[in-house]
Amino acid sequence: MVDDLDNPWAVAWLPDGDMLVTERPGRLRIVRDGTLLRGAVEGVPAVRARGQGGLLDVAPHPDFETNRLLYLSFAAQHEDGGSSTVVVRGRFENDALTGVEEVWVAQSRGRDHFGSRLAFDADNYLYITAGDRQVSPRGGLAELSAHPAQDLSTHHGVVVRLHDDGRIPADNPFVGQEGVLQDIYSYGHRNAQGMAFHPETGDLWLNEHGPQGGDEVNLILPGRNYGWPVVGYGVNYGSGSRIHVGSHRDGMEPPAHYWVPSIATSGLMIYTGDRFPEWRGSMFVGGLAGQQLARLTLDGHTVTDEETLVRRMGRIRDVRQGPDGLIYLVFDRPGMVARLEPGS
């Protein structure tokens, strides 16, 4: 549908039918009537486009038609040389972003693994994924339990829940607990790059990268620990040596589905359209290293089947349902947005 993009990361639609695409080097692009406009949107903040960082997700506010608010997540450079995941919002009018303000800044430091997926629930609360910043897991149970993804005083490997203006909801699971970041909703994640609410049940699902093996799909519940790096199904890159103390442990949530070997999950969507009626209710997950699109059949909170629909077309960074009921795939290499249509 659209090509000649530079490392696209996410796609979203506006009520007027325009499609927005983020490019990781720092540009927000507009696709209007099927055509990619030449210029980038003005007013987008400067990003740290290095490694896995850059301009990442984009999400219109659920009440965009009345408030014109658009949210962006990106990697930002700090004066001390470090970097963090940052979320901002601004008013999107006349193809430009104005009045940009910070909504949230991750309290974390590291190399890559910025997370950065955004999602709104039915009550307009904003959810943000933050990665573990690629802090290496080493040692036995004591050392793995001391990893930053198990430390509630940081934003390494968490899902955050906020009011749409960045305030912390009074009913967040850790509110009132001393020494805990009270915007945290769940923790023990590695690097979640797909997140979506089930449009019918309201359940929050995400996928996250494992190391060498152990990519996961998780049902997210408030206050729960998802185990990274204490439990999992992956091994160390290259050597294949053990990371985890096991695959399950009391007090840590097991995944609803996992991949060994990894497909490098990115992008997640639950289909509710009428163009593919036989897929209604299925979960779709993109694969980067696997260069594939996985369709998972859900029975409540259980994944009962997996089917691979796309193979070896490129690295799938995002997957979304369009307002037309078709399925859209964002490929970061080659840089394009493709559309799945029913066969004749």
Largest sheet, strands/sense/barrel: 4 strands, antiparallel
The tally of helices reads: 2
Query: Helix coverage percent of residues?
Result: under 10%
Number of strands: 23
Over all CA atoms, what is the radius of gyration? 19 Å
How far apart are the termini? 19 Å
In percent, how much strand structure appears in the residues? 35-45%
Report the order of strands and helices: EEEEEHEEEEEHEEEEEEEEEEEEE
- Tell me the overall shape: globular
How would you describe what is shown here?
The longest helix has 5 residues. The strands form 6 sheets. A 4-stranded antiparallel sheet has the order 1-2-3-4, with no helix packed on it. It is an all-beta fold. 45% of the residues are buried. The chain contains 2 helices and 23 strands.
Write a brief caption for the model.
The chain has helices spanning 64-67, 141-145, and strands at residues 8-13, 19-23, 27-32, 35-36, 55-60, 69-77, 83-93, 96-105, 118-120, 126-130, 158-162, 184-187, 192-197, 204-208, 215-220, 257-259, 265-270, 283-287, 292-299, 302-311, 315-321, 327-333, 335-340. With 344 residues, the chain is an all-beta fold.
